[in-house]
Amino acid sequence: MMNSETNNSRFSSVYDCTIIELDKHHHEKGNITVVENNITIPFGTKRVYYLYDIPGGESRGAHAHKELSQLVIAASGSFDVILDDGKERKIFSLNRSYYGLYVPKGLWRQMENFSTNALALIVASTTYNAEDYIYDYEEFLKHK
């Protein structure tokens, strides 16, 4: 089981992010991968969504969350996740459906370099709340 989440988003760092190898159950008819609350990932799931049909050259994200943590999975294709904690930046390249990137609350995130037909699956710790988003990078730095 993973350690519990960082309590204060102001202290989250890019070094708190990690690639999690998800359980891959092989079967001759196809594989299955399972994500379980507070076992595979260090939070309970409140929302799941996915990004698809992203035109070449486009990026997604460019925001931070005060409370929401995520697991980002390249369910199909590949893309990069750029994370920033206000002091350091780190880039994670995702291209396997059985790897997920744990992103704790309080980090600036952006996704780019989507391959053709990429599918980004996002497992989120909270339901949608517009007040949780920080869209301005300078405001993000003040929050940190």
TrEMBL record:
Domain Sugar 3,4-ketoisomerase QdtA cupin: from-to ranges: 16-143
Superkingdom classification of source: Bacteria
SUPFAM superfamilies: RmlC-like cupins (SSF51182)
InterPro entries attached to this UniProt entry: QdtA_cupin_dom, RmlC-like_jellyroll, RmlC_Cupin_sf
Signal peptide: none
This protein's name: Putative RmlC-like cupin family protein
Organism: Microbacter margulisiae
